[in-house]
Amino acid sequence: MNDTPLHLAVALDGAGWHPAAWRSQETPGALFTAAYWADLVTEAERGLLDFVTFEDSLGVQSAAPHRPDDRTDQVRGSLDAVLIAAFVAPLTTHIGLIPTVNVTHTEPFHVAVGIATLDHAAKGRAGWRPQIAPRAADATHFGRRSTPQLTDDDIRDSELIAKRLRPLFAEATEVVEVTRRLWDSWEDDAEIRDTATGRFIDRDKLHHIDFAGEYFSVRGPSITPRPPQGQPVIASVAHASTPYEFAARGCDVVFVTPFDRAGAKAILAQVDEAVEGAGRDLVERPLRRFAEVVVFLDDEPGAAARRKERLDTLNGAEYTSDAAIFTGTPGELADLLLDWRTTGLDGFRLRPGAVPQDLTAITRRLVPELRQRGAFRTEYGPGTLRDRLGLPAPRNRYARGD
Amino acid sequence: MTKQIHLAAQLPAIHNVTVWSDPRSTSQIAVDNFVHLARTAERGKFDFFFLAEGLRVREHKGHFYDLDVVGRPDNLTMLSTVAAVTRHLGVAATVNATFNEPYEVARRLATLDHLSGGRAAWNVVTSFDAFTGENFRRGGFLAEADRYTRAAEFLATARELWDSWADDDVQADPASGRFVPSEAGRFAHRGEHFDISGRFTTPRSPQGHPVIIQAGESPAGRDFAASDAEVVFSKYNRLDEARAFYQDVKGRLARYGRSPDDLRIMPTATVVVADTDAEAAAYADEITRAQVSPQTAIAHLEAVWGRDLSAYDPDGPLPDIDPESESLVLKGHSVFRTGRAETARRWRALAEERGLSIRELVIEVHGGQTFVGSPRTVADAVDHFVQSGGADGFVFAAHLTPGGLDDFVDRVVPLLQEKGALRRDYTGTTLRHHLGLPPLPRTQRTSGNTKEAS
Question: In this predicted structure, what is the pLDDT of residue B443?
Fold first, then answer.
C-alpha cells in the first residue's frame, strides 16, 4: 500500500449536493451570508483538509445540466465564488481555496488578475477551477455570443457532451495558457526600489505575453505582481476524453468521477493516455488525480441511507449524480477510499450531501478514522497549497539567466 | 448644526503619490498592508475604504513606466478580504464599464454587498483607451462620445439586475418546500449597448444597490453624477474651485428630482501632520520633492511635450522646442492624454513668470499637499473646508503604505470629534447609513418587463 498520506478536499456547493439538503438546515437561506461560508471553511480547516472548492456558475442553478428549469423547491441563487474565497482567506491560515470561475463568458485578463489577487490575499493558498458554460441559455446573460445547445440525448453520454462542447474546451485551453503567462509576466524580483536611479521596478522583468490564439488575443503584462505561489493551482473536473485532454494540457489537479474501483482504474488509464498525448513531463509538471464521491455519513449503520431517502422523498425523486454516491459510516467510507486509491489516485474531493452535517462528519469522524490507519496528516506542515500537493516551485517562463 | 464630515481612505497604488523610496513605505500588494490601512480608517470612523483600478501597466517611450509604484490587486477581490477583517467600514471599488459586462459586475458587487453586510460601493468609470483594450478579448475601445451613454446604460442595466430579486424572494421555507419563486431573478434589457435577458443569480443584497460613485468633471459627467450617483469624487481640493464645483453639481440635482442631501461630494486630498505648523510645512515640502524626483519631472515634461527630453537638465529651464501634440509617449496615464499643447503653453508661461526650473515647475503644478500643519491646524482646515461649502468630506490618499493615515487618525480625528463634526462611533451597519443617505425603498420585482433604454 501507498504510504504517502491521502489528499482530501471538500466541494462546497450551496446547502450541500443533495437538492433537498437546504430543508434540513437550521437556518435555511443563510447560504447568502458571510458567516455561513466562514463557518464551513473554518470547519474544513479544523479537519486539516487540503483544500475546499467553491462551485459557481453564471446562471441560476437547474436540475438539468443543459437548460434552465423553473423549480422553486431547490436552492436557486448564488454568490460569486472568488469573492467568497477572498472573504474567508484572512479567517483561515492553512487550507487551500479553489473557486470555480467560468471561462466562456469572462475576460481571461480579469480571471488571471482575480486569482493572482486571491493568492496574495490567502498568502499562497489559492487555486482556480476553470469551467466552461454548458448551458446555452447563460449566453443570453451576456448577449455577446451563442454557445452550443445540448439536447436531452446528448446529456446521457459524457463523450457526446464533450464532443458538442469541444470548441469551448479549446477556448478554455487558451484561457488557461493566457492565465499562466500572465502569472509569469512579472518576474519574482521585478520590484527593485532603486532609489539611486528612481526606478521602482526593473522594467526588463515585466513582460508582454503577446498571446494571439484562435479565440482571442491578450497583450499583457498582468497588472498584479506575481502571486506568492508563482502559479496558483489549477484544477478541473473531467468525465470524458476531451476534458481529460484539457486537464493533461494545463491543469495541476484533475477531479474524475469513477463509480467503482475498476472504473477508477479505467479512467486513470485514459488520463495517462491524455498526458502522454499532450507530451507532458510528469516529473516537472505533476498532475494530481482526485476521485469525486458524494457522501452521506452517519455513525449508525443504515442511518445515512435513511437520511438520503428522506431527502429524496422531499425532492420527489431519487438523487443521482455524475459522481459515485456513498451512504454509510465513516469507517466504511475510509475502507472505500483506501481501496480506490490503490488504483493510483492521489486523493479525493468529497461532496457533502448535506451541509453542515456531512461536512462535520468528514472532519470529525472520517478524518480521525483515516488518521488511525496512518493515512492522513495529524497537522498542517508549512508551505503553500502547491507545496502541500507536492507540486514543485514553477519555473518562470520569462525569467532569463538563472 | 455642524455639518458632518464624511471621510474615505484610498490606497494609492499608482501615479506618484506614494513615496516608495521612504523606507516606511512597504509592499503595495501585501494583504497585511491593505488590512492595516483599512483598520486605521475604521478606527478613524471613516465612511469607506477605496481602491481604484488599473487594467494595463503604463508605458513610457516604449518601455514600462518604472518611476512610480507599479502593480495592484483586483480591487473587488481584495475588498472582499478587507470586508472580512472590518465590521463597519464601507468598501468601494472602481470598476470599468468598457471592459466588463453588466451581469458579471452586478453579480460581483451584489456578492460584496452580501458578504460585507451592506457596505459595498461602486465607482463607475468608462475607458476609451485602445491601449488598455489590448488586454481584453473584446479588444478595441469605445468612441469617446459614447462614454456616458454606455456608462449610463451599464448602470441602468445593473440596477435592473439588482431589482430582479424582490427583498423577500429568498423564502427558504422547509415546511412548504418553497425556496424561491420561479420569477426570482428574471430580467430582460434591450438597449443600445446591451441586449440581454435571462435570470440573475444573486438575491437582493442588504443595501439593495451598492452606493454609486462617479468622478466625472465634464458637464456630461456632472449630469450623470447628479442624476444617478450618491457620491462624487473630485480633484478640486482648493477651496475656491471646490466651492464652485460643489455648487454646480448640487445645483443640478433638482433637475432630477433629488435634493442636495442625496449626494456627497468628496475631493481627493492629502494630509501632512506634525507637532508644529513649521515642522509640518517642512515635511510636506520634503514629501512633494520625493513625489517629484528629477526623473519624474522629466518624465512628466516628456508626457506633455510628446517627445524625448532626457537630455534636459531637470534643474535647468524648460525646453524651447515645441511639443509634438500628436505623439503620445506616456500610455495608460489618465492625466496627460488631452489638451497637451495648451498645457505646455501654460507651463512655459508659469516657468518664465516665476523663473522656475523644470523640476520646480512640475512641483508647482503638482500642487503639493492639501492639508498641512499641527493636528489643530489640520482639524480646523478640514472642518472649515466642509462647513463653508467646499465639500462633504474627503478621500485621503496617503503617501506612505500602509502607515500614511496613522497620524491623521490618531491626532486629528479626535479633534474633529470634539468639534462635533465627525461621529464618535458608527451608528449603523450599512455604508448608505454612514453616508447619511436614505435607504432604498423596498422593491417589488421588476422581472420580465423589457426595459427600453431611452
Answer: 72
Q: For residue A182, which amino acid is it?
A: L
Indicate whether this complex's ipTM tops 0.95. Answer: yes
Q: Does residue B450 have a pLDDT over 60?
A: no
Q: Is B311 helix (H, G, I), strand (E, B) or coil?
A: coil
Side-chain-side CA neighbours of residue A402 (13 Å): 8
Å from B118 to nearest chain A CA? 11
Position B333 confidence tier, pLDDT thresholds 50, 70, 90: confident
* Beta-carbon contacts of residue A343 (< 8 Å; ≥ 6 apart): A261, A264, A265, A268
d(CA A110, nearest CA chain B) in Å: 8
B199/A60 touch (CB, cutoff 8 Å), yes or no: yes
The three grid cell numbers given for residue B83, joined into one nine-digit string = 470586508
Helix (H, G, I), strand (E, B) or coil at B387: helix
Query: Rounded to whole angstroms, how far apart are CA atoms A83 and A100?
Result: 11
pLDDT (0 to 100) of residue A62: 94
Q: Provide the grid cell at B180.
A: 424561491
Q: Is B198 helix (H, G, I), strand (E, B) or coil?
A: strand
B291-299: average pLDDT? 94
CA atoms within 13 A on the CB side of B152: 19
d(CA A208, CA A270): 36
Matching CATH number, A7-388, of 2.30.30.100, 3.30.10.20, 3.40.50.280, 3.20.20.30: 3.20.20.30
Say if residue A1's pLDDT is above 60.
no
CA distance B20 to B399: 8
Residue ranges of the domains in chain B?
Answer: 6-270+371-452, 278-366
Would you list the DSSP string of A34-52?
Answer: HHHHHHHHHHHHHTT-SEE
Report the phi/psi class of residue A109: left, alpha or beta, with left for phi > 0 and alpha for psi in -120 to 50: alpha
Amino acid at B196: I
Q: Are A311 and A376 in contact (CB under 8 A)?
A: no
Out of B56, B72, B196, closest to residue A141 by CB: B196
Question: CATH for B6-270+371-452?
Answer: 3.20.20.30
pLDDT at position B424 over 70: yes
Q: Which whole number is the average pLDDT over A334-350?
A: 98
* A 101-140 residues inside an 8 A Cβ radius of B: 105-110, 113-114, 116-118, 120-121, 123, 137-138, 140
Please indicate whether, in this complex, the C-beta atoms of B20 and A200 are within 8 angstroms of each other: yes
> A65 in contact with B at a CB cutoff of 8 Å?
no
How does DSSP assign A316-344, residue by residue? TS----SSEEEEE-HHHHHHHHHHHHTTS
Q: Give pLDDT, residue B334.
A: 67
| Length of chain A (residues) | 402
Supply A243's cell numbers.
476534458
Q: Which positions in chain B touch A203 (Cβ < 8 Å)? A: 63-66
Q: Which of A72, A79, A225 sits opposite B178 (nearest CB)?
A: A72
Distance from CA of A286 to the nearest CA of B (A): 29
B72-87 residue pLDDT tens: 999 999 999 999 999 9
Coil vs helix vs strand at B336: coil
Tell me whether residues A223 and B71 touch, CB distance under 8 A.
yes
In b/e form, how buried is each residue of B18-49, taking b as 16+ CB within 10 angstroms?
bbbebeebebbbbbebbbbbbbbbbebbbbbb
Kindly tell me if the per-residue pLDDT of B47 is higher than 60: yes
DSSP designation for A400: -
Q: CB B179 to CB A74 under 8 A? A: yes
Q: Is the Cβ–Cβ distance between B226 and B254 less than 8 Å?
A: no
CB contact under 8 A, B78 and A117: yes
pLDDT digits (tens, 9 = 90+) for A188-238: 999 999 999 999 999 999 999 999 999 999 999 999 999 999 999 999 999
pLDDT of residue B304: 92
